[in-house]
Amino acid sequence: MDHRIEPGAEVSIDGIARDFDVSPTPVREALARLESEGLVVKRPLRGYTAAPLFDAEGLRKLFEMRRILEPAAAGLAAGRMTPAAVAALVDD
Fold it and tell me: Average pLDDT for residues 25-31, to the nearest whole number?
């Protein structure tokens, strides 16, 4: 994320579609996914805007959540590795 679109800026479906030479449909789908990830905000009858940056409390909560979830996810992934996958990691 390089902040080409400033937080709070309007995001134009038609503009993005034109820039990437695609129809508006995949842009809408991408924006819906970005909305689910908290990166854009959909406003009824106004379209999308870039989500505001996290404040200090938001960052604290984010890192606390990652501190809890990421070790558990790594443990689950490691437990599902095949012997061949383990060998590939060891060889690298």
Answer: 95
